[in-house]
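Supplementary Note 2. Why include the ligand at all?

Several targets in our set were suspected to adopt different conformations when bound, so apo predictions alone were not considered sufficient. For every target with a known small-molecule partner we therefore ran a joint prediction. The input for ANZ is given below.
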Amino acid sequence: MQALPRLRLSPPRAVFGCRAARTYQLPPRSPPNHTHRALATNTITANSQPRKLDLIALDKKWQTKWQEEGANRTAASGKEQGQTAAGEEKRKYYILSMFPYPSGTLHMGHVRVYTISDVLARFYRMRGYEVLHPMGWDAFGLPAENAAIERGVDPAGWTTDNIKRMKEQLRSISTSFDWDRELATCTPEFYKHTQRVFLMLYEKGLAYQAKAMVNYDPIDQTVLANEQVDANGFSWRSGAKVEKKLLKQWFFRITAFKEQLLQDLDSLSGGWPQRVLSMQRNWLGKSYGAKIKFPLVAESNIDINDINVFTTRPDTLYGVQYVALSLDHPIVLETAKENEGLRTFLTAAALLPPDSKVGYKLPGFSVINPLHGIDKENPYLSRRLPVYVAPYVLSDYGEGAVMGVPGHDSRDFAFFKENANPHSIPVILEAEQTPPNQHAADVPINEAKPFTQEGYLTAKCGKYHGLHSREAGKLITTDLKATGRADFVEQWKLRDWLISRQRYWGAPIPIIHCGDCGPVPVPADQLPVELPELQGDWLKGKRGNPLESSEEWRDTRCPSCGGKAKRDTDTMDTFVDSSWYYLRFLDATNKQQPFSPSLARPVDVYIGGVEHAILHLLYARFIYKFLAKSNLFPEIVRSSDSTAEPFKTLLSQGMVHGKTYTEPSTSRFLHPSEVDLSSPDKPLIKGTQITPNVSFEKMSKSKHNGVDPTTCVNKYGADATRAHVLFSAPVSEVLEWDETKIVGMERWFARLWKLVTDTQLSLSASAYIIDQADLLPSASLPSLSDSDAEAILSTHRTIASVTNCIETNPYGLNTVISDLTKLTNTLLSSPPTTPHISYLTLSSLLRLLAPTAPSLSSECWEILHSSIQKEESIPTIFDCSWPKSPLTTEQADVLSARGGQVVAVQINGKLRFTVTIPRMLSPTTPESSATEQQDYIITRILETEQGRLWLREKNDWEKKRRVIVVKGGKLVNIVF
Ligand code: ANZ
Ligand code: ZN
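The joint prediction is reproduced in token form.
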């Protein structure tokens, strides 16, 4: 039990003292029995004239300060950072936002993600953590190379210039990154270690070369990953029609980690969005089923006796009506040698999207249903089934062959409808539709629809009739297994990761090819294998791979036998760089190793766009799992069985959409300059005076709806931009960027400014000092004025709500802004009457605001304290700790219960009555506060005489109605 329930004002040590860098000479402490006193020795300066708020000027002032501070911090030893005032080790917290590609210009999506991570970083620092919040550049990749070719400049120089520009833009939005750990993946200092990671994989047999049918982009002259080819077979970058080529490529054996990659997703379920987890699961794509052998009947001489298929639905085997093969199935390749028609079909089909339903019926081939061997009398099983070649059958999945069941599979159904036109044979029905022994009639395929669920087998299915799909599937597979015609198998969609690119701007693959020794790893002391300097003619538009054409670079000696040898001329996919960069930040200047084992650790919060939900995260998880078992991690991690995951929490933020104007009749996208926006609510097309259609869409040049963050920051300041970004949508949802609404943030800041300048005046006038911890014994609680009580209660609740939101539900960061505006309004509408309550509430509000609006809160803090501590320099707001709840739960209850709350009730827009209801007890929990408060107020109103009369008798309360509680419960609007 707490001995002395009291209102605790944060004493200077608590408020100021968290970074023990400086020790403050505290003003003399007051005797404990005094509540507060004037400090006679302190000179009081009453600011005569409040200043005008200029957000842009504040940015300039504070950003310059932070930049100098950052430089000083880098110069000083890092020691003080890792320790608390008491010299204890601080808890470490690693906050990372996905590093950008250095395109040269920041876009609104960047502003969103870096604002979120910056708010978290500043918050955790104020909470006393040693925060790591680094930034770097995903600097390899095609765009730099292409842009360089177009402009005839070196990709390295182009990239460095872009980095410089973007870094400046990041500063302009007041981000607080640890620039001393900055890295760029295109520098030899970084890619030396990417090459090291490659060789570690190679040593373990996890990097290998194999011939592969690859997607070849004839314009960019490179191999593309499947994901870089769109659904219609075009390159994601160049837009070229992608060709198939068989080439030797480098792969990482990610499939060796598939079970772990799948299983460990369970351990992430608290920290990652379910949506991302299920995207990862689908990508890994584990499915259980059966491999079934269909006896092949061939007229020609072919060395193949069976066609194997993989199916997840062996229960539908009675319904098989054909078998389909992929374009490169051995039977197909063999037949194509003799069959010109097939060859023509294959050439045409290779260019079709995988969901195309064209097919080619292989003449002279048929198969027999393997069940015929078990169920000889069944007429459905005695028929020979046709064999097709079809692009919808994937060559690298299962057996590259499908048993076609038009009655129960939509793809098979569509295919059969297009390529044959008989009946579909249902063999599974929902239970209630299947009276015992009844045959389900075959249905003409034009009238039929596939039944794709599981159900019960019909009377066509011999001894399996009446069984449930799952049971039947197991039994059928077991029976066929006994005759050597089936087996239980599992399949994965995941394929090994093709990492080689025939391009210049990437990390060279550190392998030397020797005629005698084969591929030989480049010895560790010869890393990095640096990229060759680009020759002039290549810059002037020569295509192809400069690593190949640069003989001087390519020709070398074999590290093993010393004979003539050639360097591998491929570079690595940029996803390799990003699969491990987050570990490099932990030890960014280590020359010997990628990072030291003593520093290896996962990221606590990782923030980035949902477009990276699959590949980047999967590759990073794979590499982390691999490295965690290597000697780059400490023994304790290596030998542990627990899951090794790189990102404990994942915040995946939604896109930013821009306001888009279109001409209603033609749907032409209008440039904003074509629209008269003088009254923002009523835009008109200039000239015609027609109202344009307004929508929010993905920002793009063609839609003229892009927003340049720099222009926005220059106009409204970083703080208003940041607050608006946070406020406009919950983190995971699409943010509809509407610049006209930013004025809401400006108005709020203006109110806050007034509050601070007013309070500062009255504080200095009363010569209030802040060094007293025991200002208000619990006995004083009842003597608090109403406005003091309300101010302190609101502050108490806001601290709880904001803290809880950032710590446990950062997806709801938008509510932080609404909580803070509410508190600002409360303090303005009923200002506290006691100076120390003024101080307590306002200094808390400013600290709560600091992560979001760093310049404004820093300035307000300085103003607030300018007359208090004369002889000491004022510590900045970020040197101070996060506010603690000023009340105990009991105290909060006492204050909440005090007096009543007057509520005005409006019905259908008319003020009908006012009632006094008891204040709500015990602070509400932050997530439910709004609805809880609303329910509480409505229940209390219904208990009153007036409430009953107006809501139950004169109106029908049970009817559909809308209730809006405004002004924190002072006004309730009910619309029937
Ligand atoms: C017959 C069947 C009947 C099927 C039915 C499904 C439903 P998942 O779950 O994604 O693993 N399939 C097998 N190999 C294929 C290939 N190489 N290319 C395209 N499709 C292939 O999918 C497994 C199902 O995908 C298999 O089960 C097979 O169709 C098809 F009512 O077999 B099924
Ligand atoms: Zn050799």
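The chain is about 35% helix and 20% strand. Residues 1-47, 767-775 have pLDDT under 50 and may be disordered. Comparable summaries for the other entries are listed in the accompanying table.
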